[in-house]
């Protein structure tokens, strides 16, 4: 049971952008990315990495988050990312996670609109910045400030602003809205699912190679022999 409470709060817009990512055979696919200067590495969802069919390399990377929570990534891929607005592109080493973040919450459009100038609407980094949508890529601090530009424009909707970037104009700031708060934590639910999948990945780490499969089969055969055979008085196995 989830107890809901009506509350006046602020919707904070994260720095999101819709970018083009290239697959194994050069095919491009759109995905929503979050730009996070506080992350030391880049991340990609397992779902997107599988869709792109990118070759993954094994790794064991401990990840620490807010509240000293810890998890581990067991593989990484190299991703080619390109802006939809220009020829700007970069290659990123992205560590694979079962889930990136839960879908970013939607925010209702104000009665008087967003007041974004028409000439900038076509250049928004994330045209659906206010709509609920999943995130499959997190771009960290190593390239964050290379992407962010120097120009910033205030718009008429409260304290919102448009930040120039190589990926287009990014909507930033917060907007006062009516929202419902629940006693359960989406972050905790996501972390629980994330940890379960990571534990499975860690348990299977290295077990799929041909040599390791053979070693495991031999070990299982020895254990079966020890559990199901006995030696009689004459030294024979029965």
UniProtKB/TrEMBL annotation:
Protein keywords: Signal
Keyword Signal: yes
InterPro entries, alphabetized: Peptidase_aspartic_dom_sf
Taxonomic source organism: Schizaphis graminum
The protein, known as: Uncharacterized protein
Signal peptide region: 1-23
Top-level taxon in the UniProt lineage: Eukaryota
């Amino acid at each position: 049971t989830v107890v809901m409470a009506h509350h006046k709060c602020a919707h904070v817009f994260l720095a999101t952008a819709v970018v083009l990512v290239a697959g194994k055979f050069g095919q491009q696919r759109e995905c929503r990315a979050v730009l996070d200067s506080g992350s030391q590495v880049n991340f990609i969802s397992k779902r997107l990495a599988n869709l792109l069919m990118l070759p993954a390399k094994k790794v064991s990377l401990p990840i620490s988050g807010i509240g000293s929570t810890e998890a581990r990534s067991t593989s990484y891929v190299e991703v080619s990312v390109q802006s939809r607005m220009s020829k700007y592109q970069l290659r990123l080493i992205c560590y694979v996670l079962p889930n990136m973040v839960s879908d970013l919450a939607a925010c209702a459009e104000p009665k008087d609109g967003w007041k974004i100038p028409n000439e900038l609407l076509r250049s928004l980094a994330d045209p659906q910045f206010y709509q609920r949508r999943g995130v499959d890529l997190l771009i960290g601090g190593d390239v964050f400030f290379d992407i962010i530009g120097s120009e910033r424009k205030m718009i008429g909707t409260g304290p919102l602003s448009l930040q120039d970037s190589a990926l287009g104009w990014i909507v930033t700031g917060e907007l006062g809205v009516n929202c419902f708060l629940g006693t359960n934590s989406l972050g905790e639910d996501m972390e629980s699912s994330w940890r379960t999948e990571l534990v499975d990945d860690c348990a299977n780490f290295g077990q799929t190679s041909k040599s390791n499969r053979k070693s495991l089969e031999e070990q299982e055969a020895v254990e079966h022999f020890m559990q199901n055979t006995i030696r009689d008085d004459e030294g024979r196995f029965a």
